[in-house]
Amino acid sequence: MQSGTLLNLTGHIVDDGRLHLVRPIGAGAFGRIYKALDTTSPASSPTFYAVKCLRRPSLRSHDAKFQDRERALHRRVSAHPNIVTLHRHFSDSKHVFLVLDLCVGGDMFAAIMDGVYRRNTALIKHTFASLIDAVRFCHVRGVYHRDLKPENVLVNYKGGDALIADFGLCTDSKVSHDVDCGSGSYMAPESFGSASSSYRPQDSDTWALCIILINLVTAMNPWHTAQSTDGRWNAFMADPDFLREILPISHSLNELLQRCFRIDPARRPTLTELRHEVLGMNHLFMSDADLLKASPGVRRA
Questions:
Q1: Which of 167, 205, 273, 284 has CB 3.0 to 4.6 Å from 74, enough for a Cys bridge?
Q2: In terms of DSSP H, where are the helices of the chain?
Q3: pLDDT tops 50 at residue 108
Q4: What is the DSSP string of 97-127?
Q5: Is 180 a catalytic residue?
Q6: Which of 147, 166, 203, 205 is an active site residue?
């Protein structure tokens, strides 16, 4: 199932001649994504899609169940403007293809690294609120993403319009026993196998959004994993104000994040509360006066 084992399909015509796979634009653990031309669209105004290519699994296999779940749950939430639309799927003898919206701006990780959000409070608020709205839409419909991170959020050229993508790890289970599911830096403590035998994916999605908020504001991660083996996580557990020692964040954002990263999920803010508080903040970034007193690492961020 690894993307490296898939054939390079660049230039191939698929979907009974309707789609021309122009070039690869991304790859993940389980597939490869191509920019594809709709050959039925007019040459003067061509239509392009993103086509996710997966290896076709054997019937009734574990992988087949995962792919079926991804398609069904993604389709359930495709109507939201901040979720990449799954238009349809088809297969050949070796592959399964998902036809998705094409976002020309790339992913949020690249936008963060390019400085698109740097000290831009209005843009961060707009982008983060749209992500919360999309995740709430999913949760109301019983869909939990479980792998929210900037690499799985697509953006337009200027970064403002964000769309959630890649539902490969999503679930409709309100309580999950699939521990260690997701990307380590964005996982809540209860999602790790050493912490609990089960967790609520709804809570893990909210935790991941809080890490993404830090990414948008600082272009940094606060820790590698929220586990006792991580020095920065331990430092935060010992002193909640530790975040301002390593990140150029405002006092108000620091106070909110302290509540977001509580060990007990029931004591963390809800998505509605999180959205309201972030939009109501006057400052997300550390003040210039505080930056002068901050560590060199914080000043460089």
A1: 167
A2: 62-77, 108-113, 121-140, 201-218, 231-238, 243-246, 251-260, 271-280, 288-293, 296-300
A3: yes
A4: EEEE---TT-BHHHHHHTTTTTT-HHHHHHH
A5: no
A6: 147
- Residue 287 sits at φ, ψ, to 5 deg, of -65, 160
Phi–psi pair at 249, nearest 5 degrees: -110, 155
Q: Which two tokens stand for residue 22?
A: 């122009």
What is the average pLDDT across 270-294?
A: 93
Give the chain's end-to-end CA distance (angstroms, integer). Answer: 38
Radius of gyration for the alpha carbons in the chain, expressed in angstroms and rounded: 20
Over residues 71-97, mean pLDDT: 95
Q: Which two tokens stand for residue 206?
A: 């909210």
Give the pLDDT confidence of 115-173 residue by residue, as tens digits. 999 999 999 999 999 999 999 999 999 999 999 999 999 998 677 789 999 999 999 99
Q: Per the structure block, which two tokens stand in for 203?
A: 């809570």
d(CA 40, CA 45): 11
Give the span between the Cα atoms of 78 and 91, in whole angstroms: 20
Structure tokens at 181: 């599911």
Question: Is residue 8 within 8 Å of residue 24, measured between CB atoms?
Answer: yes
Q: Which two tokens stand for residue 3?
A: 């993307």
Q: Which domains does the chain have, with CATH numbers?
A: 3-100 (3.30.200.20), 108-300 (1.10.510.10)
On the 0-12 / 13-18 / 19+ scale of CB atoms within 10 A, 131 is buried
Phi first, then psi, for residue 228 (nearest 5°) are -65, -15
Q: Output the known binding site for ATP.
A: 52
Q: pTM above 0.85?
A: yes
Residue reference for tokens 């380590």: 184
What number of other Cβ atoms are within 10 A of residue 218's Cβ? 23
Q: Which residues are annotated as a binding site?
A: 52
Q: How far apart are the C-alpha atoms of 114 and 109, rounded to whole Å?
A: 9
